Structures
1.
Amino acid sequence: MTGSSFQFGNHNSADDWGIRVIAHDFLFPPKRARKVAIPHRDGMYDFGAQNFEERTLRLSCTLERKITRAALREIVYLLCQKKQIRLWNEPDKYYIGELYDPDEILDYPMEVEREFELNFICEPFAYMDAVDAPVSSGHNAVPYRGTANAPCVITLHNPNSYAITNVTITAIKRRI
């Protein structure tokens, strides 16, 4: 992937559109507050925040080359569809999101090197491509490289002509 760019679906922002990322702001999605006001009681009752809200992936970008308004409209049309978003500095992870408010990019179609912001609304967590982990008899550990207490999918494939019996899978929560 080209440096200082993002991959949106099958399109690279720098190679295909001339859009470079100069800064990005994201670390973790906000937690969803679960509080309720009780009449005649100070403060709020907190049920505990256990889930996360949608993530806003903020990318500060510049346009490297002049493009027509029609070409810009086509780019915005593509960015407003829900797709995988990969960043050049985290190529092993991707987000699923779309652009909801393209107004800022539409204001400056002919100005090269003008800074604008793309705010993608994404699902809360970063995803990772499936990992193949060959196993053998005995204890096999499959590392979890995620940062959230999220479910994983384990698929077992038997390439042999004989059946496998007594398979035990033990899932252990990630420790911080």
2.
Amino acid sequence: MTDGTNPTTQEELTEPLLPQGDDVESIPPEDVCATTDNDDTNNDDTGDGDNTTEFSFQNEVAEMVNLGIPLAVSFFCRMGMASTDSAFVGHIHNGDNSPEVYLAAAVLSDMMVTLCITPPLAFNQIVSALVGQAMGSNNPKMAGIWLQQSMFWIAVTMTPCLVGLFYVQPCLELLGFSHEISEVAGQYAKWNLLWPVPNGLYQCLRFYFQACGFPRPAMYNNLAFLGINTLLNWIFVFGGPIPGWNGFGFIGAAISLSISRTMQGVCYFIYMFLIKEHHKHAWPDAGWSFTHHTRERTWEFLKQSLPNVGTLLFQAVSSQATTVLLGRLGDAAIAASSALSTVTIPWSGTMSATCGMVSGVRVGYHLGRGDGEAARRASWLMIHFITVMCILTSIVFIPLKRQIMMIATDDDEVIDLAVKVVAAMLVGNYLNLLVGNITSVFGGQGRPLIATILSFGLELPTSIGGMAIVILVLHGNLIGVYWWNAIAGGIEAVIVVWLLTRSNWAKCADDTQRRQEADSNEEEEDAATEPESSLERPSDETSSSDEGDSPETPLIERV
């Protein structure tokens, strides 16, 4: 469920405060099915493909940990970069504006940047699905073709969308925000022009290599640039170690982020493509070439990616609409909400993105083996993990809430308001994590329509509509807004848990196996008996896909 005051869905956490998702990326049903075939090579505790293998709690936990740790570290670093910028902004005392104004301007600028760059992200959200399917169908060279398609469409569509960043100030003033905050936010947005295209291309590369079985390089790269971004913020915001220079102040955070996100992709490309050449096992023979991109392949790519444009745009608009509504409560409310997001997104966003992806992969893996009961147990295992982690987090957060909030800002007014809503925020976070994880399970089952219906039919009236009533009709405060979001999350949690308990896991397993057969090459019968495949030892697969770059290769059918 979308929670504008403290976003937790993967799309919201993508870039720069979206998750994204980090690194967030939401897994379509095709991705889950395809990835699970490959994922059992990385997590091959039952590599014989026998769907009668007894479910092992210990093995399942081990597989989830092995898959989840690199993803969690990577997601944490990606979202930590955005939180680092906000933390530095919240400590600026240059006499021009208060930290409260800078925090509010930063979150409003991020809102507008998010709305501008979200639609093109649909073209990289599908990469992991197509690459995973190509690897699972024993046709790895098609993976490189899908990557090239994604990078082309990202570059072509993202560039014109950035024009909107020149009009952030008039848009915010039109929405009723003060001239002071709108002007500062407009300046900040213009300094974010440089990173969206390189960052979008980096996402394409990251999803491609993760689906090919190389998740750790992205983790190390993100770790390195989390530290680099912190250093750059210190230098460009406050002057760092340079004597007599006080930095660029507020816009220094945007400059730091632009440099970090741009160089992050450049370094990753150099390492993966030029130094290690990890792409070779899943790359067409002609390399970077338009000859691969036949009309049929291009149309297939667009058919699978264009529907995501509407979905991502709806999620971004509904999320940012709450920021606009919070603006009716004043600058202090926006600043307090921004401070809360700064200290909670790194852990809540990391859990949301990681648990959702791990659930989708493991559920799909078991369903691909035809073992619906194991898939059911894996889904509930992750739900229990989320519950325990949220309890432990609350035990630490509640008694130390003021000290934790001081990480984001040293403005006493903002801290005093933020600590009052910590309890509601923690409850809402848990419920949103629960809902997000279960919707990922639905994706693993091949039932993404459930999440779509919930987004349009439930989130819009309960979350956005309810918040509008609290603020505009009842004239509530920030505390009431956070508690309403927790209530709305509880309503959706009850519904998705009920739907999960009513799932026909045997039918889901049958449907998943039929999809795998439909997506397989006819000549893959021998490979089907060899579950140790593309992800674990990609170099062993190269020789088994002689037809991978042939135009006659069957396109992956839509699920």
3.
Amino acid sequence: MKIFKVINNNIVITLDQNNQEIILMGRGLGFKQRPGNNIDENLIEKRFSLSSSDNEESSVSQLLSNISLEDIRVATQILNYAKDIFNTKVSDSKVIALSDHIHSVLERYNSGVELKNNLLWEIKRFYPKEFTVGKEALDIIQQQFGIKLPEDEAGFITMHIVEAQMNQTIDDLDGLTQFIQKVIQILKYACHQEIDEHSAYYYRFVTHLRYLAQRIFSNQISIEKTDSSMLEIIKLQYPDAYQAAEKVLNFIQNEYNCRLASDELIYLTIHIEKLIRHTNTD
């Protein structure tokens, strides 16, 4: 195995049999090395394989040249914790993105700069489970680097966790969060009541909205018609929830210039019915 590119003292890049770049990390792995030298495989701690699209879309080498091995270890520990919680896979590019974020956080902290997270309240509401991972991340960072970060930072890390789960960018997730916020407001207006935002029904509804938004933003919407008899049954059985679901559906279609299948109206009605019933019985 030979070095293709030296990033810094701890990070080098090699090529696999398909000429795809493989990032290798380990203390001293790139120290006094140059392209073409043999790699001491005993020093390798981590391997990352990035697709060609990852390399085209971001300056991976530039990111790697700035972050430290400790940044990567902490990011890996955080994402491994998230993988255990959510039983999901995380691509190598997400590890590097979070490592770069942690590096930036440490730089800001050392410079006395503190960023306000304007979406913190929404993040807590819409991603409660992911936010617990964000708070755990602050503990991991404190243990490793000896610094105590504010809750705002847990919110920023939460968005990286959500991004890793849904394979979207942070910019997409800002739009996704606003999508959920708008739909919840429309729902409250349509139902003329507050919603219990701490219930399992609310969490399931928000989860449904997250994946609906993901399909809308990626233009992966099915417009196949559902059996009209099922829609009529739902309409008769849950008239109030159905009316609220219609308002939500119309808002989404008009606001995001999309057309949704009638089965989406069924799903929304069922979710809203459970939300209303749970809120009214508590």
